Amino acid sequence: MLLTSFFVLLIALCAVGYMLGRNKAAAAAGGNLSSLHSLLSYHGWNVALSTFMAGAGVLILWAFLGTFFDGASPLIGVILGTIAALAAFTVTFGQITQSFRARNFVEGLIKALLILASSIAILTTVAIVLSMVFETGRFFSQYPWQDFFFGANWAPNFRGNSDLGMLPLLWGTLYVSFIALLVAVPIGLFAAVYLSEYASSKVRSFAKPMIEVLAGIPTIVYGLFALITVGPMLRDYFAQPLGIGESSSSVMTAGIVMGVMLIPFVSSLSDDIINAVPQAMRDGSLGLGATPSETIRQVVLPAALPGVVGAILLAASRAIGETMIVVMGAGAAARLSLNPFEAMTTVTVKIVSQLTGDTDFSSPETLVAFALGITLFVLTLGLNVLALYIVRKYREQYE
User: ∠ CA(280), CA(284), CA(288), 5° rounding?
Assistant: First the structure.
């Protein structure tokens, strides 16, 4: 309530500052607005933005310091923020004259806001990595890293003597993701080629939104679809008749449903990328006697390859980080097996299970979740580096 009242008052003060700034600038011009160096709106925005940034900045700084020093009262932060806002209001309002370059100050404040917005993403990434690294260091101080990275048995026991080998989890993650990409990449890429090269405008206007609807379905709904429909169907018509499985929860179940979920990621991005290929390249190929299919295979797709690789990378990262579909479709058994009709699990599922319930954050059975998280981060980072290499290589070839 206190913070809400503060920001309401701060916004009201900014609105007042905007109006008063405009009025004072108009009065300073003496009726001749063309004599002002900056427009009236710049003078108003200078007062408003300076007031808001000073008040909010001091309050956020006080809250940040309060995480390091106990007893930092929110009331004191609100008081300091109010004083800073009033001080900025007074200073900027007093600066308004006929020759004051308000536009330069406003553009400088906006540039500072843009830099701050860019820095937030970078600092957030750094904070995430550091938090994972510190907790992972605590884990490896209690559990041998050789047993974690090369152990083939996953059997956590909060009473001690746990086996925390990550190989079964990593295998399940890669296996499910591989099957999902086998489903999503061909279907998504073929759909993108059809929509961009063959479909009429009427068909395209209907088909593309329908495909993109898949991206808006919650993953829990996909999980229910895997649990109730796809899993029993695969068990009854494939696994049991062939004698290779008895459970409806399997890698194949989760992989197929996850692949369906990833189709719009590949299709929509690839469609936009293929449409961005210059029409002159198509016309040149057709003019040399190539058929439309040859033009697509030998001209359009190679030129669009960097972007298509990026779309596939996005789908792969999405598959590696998926949790709900795996929980409901693949089960929770950590095992090393080549049989796609057996239940397995992934790294993300075990991260959730190790951090669920009444956990002790000083035990290796809980801290292992951070080690799994940093491993998953390194894996996706490697995929990004590989994709960047491929994109740069082929971009140089076709530019």
Answer: 170
For 23, the token pair is 């009025």
User: Looking at the predicted structure, is the pLDDT value of residue 282 above 60?
Assistant: yes
Reference 244, options 337, 159, 356, 110; nearest CA is 337
Average pLDDT rounded to a whole number, residues 265-279 = 88
Q: pLDDT tens across 17-53, in order?
A: 899 988 888 888 776 777 777 888 888 898 898 999 9
What percentage of the chain exceeds 90 in pLDDT?
23
pLDDT tens across 369-383, in order? 999 999 988 888 888
- CB-CB contact of 193 with 215 (8 Å): no
Residues 346/173, Cβ–Cβ less than 8 Å: yes
Most confident of the ranges 70-84, 104-118, 354-368 = 104-118
**Pair of tokens at residue 95:** 């600066």
Which of 176, 250, 251, 268 has its CA nearest to residue 214?
A: 268
Instruction: Name the phi and psi angles at 200, rounded to 5.
Output: -75, 165
Query: In the CATH scheme, what is the code of domain 154-398?
Result: 1.10.3720.10
Residues 6+ apart with CB under 8 A from 359: 366
Query: Taking Cα atoms as reference points, which of 25, 51, 50 lies closest to residue 39?
Result: 25
214: three-class secondary structure by DSSP: helix
DSSP collapsed to 3 states, 251-297: HHHHHHHHHHHHHHHHHHHHHHHHHCCCHHHHHHHHHCCCCHHHHHH
Quote the pTM value.
Answer: 0.78
Q: Where are the beta strands (DSSP E) in the chain?
A: 154-155, 163-164
Annotated domain spans of the chain: 2-117, 154-398
- Tell me if residue 157 falls in helix, strand or coil: coil
